[in-house]
């Protein structure tokens, strides 16, 4: 039986809502679907060890749940304020019979990125997959109001942390390892009010291509995922002007926002050995907007 993508997930207006960054998934209405009820694994990541940044909520949470149900042990990073969301994810990882490691901390610090990788490697007993999903997005309509602090923090979180985490992880990654970054439709079709964020997502796309070229000879694959509008805490913590929330995602050709669970199969594929001939690529999951 086929499922109609237009109404497979929530496709009505969203209630206006605001939380302070980084926000909690548990406080959203409606709660995003990160696959808690329905994602079924088929051992695609059996015996792999994965570190996922932003693993408490949204796309990272869906990836963490899917990776565990596919047989991977999973370490997640998140900010200390997100502990309760992270503990929910821990429960899902353990219910899947896999090892979970919670590593709170701020990716804007180079030192923390090093500690994060060391802790993940030591606690998991290895490292095969880096799913770098954490991100910062704050809307600002006018460049003259864009603070230097926001510019720095958006670049540190979204771009610098990828350099720092990858540098720290390379001594542990073996042939067959997979690095997955997270770009955006914004790298291809930037919204004027996301000037700094869209620029970081363009940088991530280019970084991913260039890094894939460096690491191919070591048998390490590097790819990126480009989500469109997805219903996650990011969106209700200042990433969108409030007026955009009710109709969020409805301009996409599929006429609704995506749910985090709809991203998980792509992260799973890119992490898996089935993607053995896939590197340097960007995979769009956008509801139909073009990523080229
Ligand atoms: P989310 O709020 O659930 O996830 C973002 C996570 O980033 C947070 O949970 C937080 O743990 C982490 N984070 C932010 N700043 C951090 C810091 N300084 N240190 C450590 N962790 C930090 O939202 P999401 O939408 O699932 O976002 C995941 C990724 O997807 C981001 O890279 C985002 O840019 C990207 N993305 C999202 C959309 C969308 O519509 N939701 C679209 C395109 C791309
Ligand atoms: Mg979160």
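-> sequence recovered:
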């Amino acid at each position: 039986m086929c499922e109609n993508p237009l109404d497979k997930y929530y496709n009505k207006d969203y209630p206006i809502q605001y939380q302070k960054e980084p926000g909690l998934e548990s406080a959203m209405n409606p709660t995003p679907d990160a696959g808690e009820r329905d994602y079924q694994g088929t051992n695609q990541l059996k015996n792999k060890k994965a570190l996922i940044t932003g693993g408490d909520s949204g796309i990272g949470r869906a990836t963490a749940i899917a990776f565990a149900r596919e047989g991977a042990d999973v370490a997640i990073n998140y900010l200390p304020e997100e502990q309760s969301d992270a503990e929910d994810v821990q429960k899902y990882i353990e219910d899947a019979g896999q090892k979970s490691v919670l590593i709170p901390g701020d990716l804007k610090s180079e030192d923390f990125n090093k500690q994060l990788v060391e802790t993940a490697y030591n606690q998991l007993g290895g490292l095969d997959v880096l799913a770098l999903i954490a991100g910062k997005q704050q809307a600002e309509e006018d460049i003259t109001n864009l603070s230097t602090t926001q510019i720095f923090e958006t670049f540190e979180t979204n771009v610098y942390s990828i350099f720092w985490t990858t540098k720290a992880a390379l001594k542990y990654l073996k042939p067959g390892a997979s690095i997955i970054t997270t770009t955006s439709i914004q790298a291809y079709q930037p919204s004027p009010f996301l000037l700094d964020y869209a620029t970081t997502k363009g940088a991530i796309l280019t970084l991913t291509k260039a890094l894939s070229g460096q690491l191919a000879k070591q048998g390490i694959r590097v790819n990126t995922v480009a989500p469109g509008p997805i219903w996650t805490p990011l969106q209700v913590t200042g990433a969108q002007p409030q007026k955009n929330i009710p109709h969020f995602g409805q301009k996409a050709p599929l006429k609704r926002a995506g749910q985090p669970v709809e991203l998980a199969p792509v992260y799973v594929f890119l992490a898996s050995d089935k993607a053995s001939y896939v590197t340097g690529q960007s995979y769009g999951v956008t509801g139909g907007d073009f990523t080229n």
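The pocket of magnesium ion (ligand 2) is lined by residues 22, 56-57, 78, 82, 85, 233 (CB under 6 Å).
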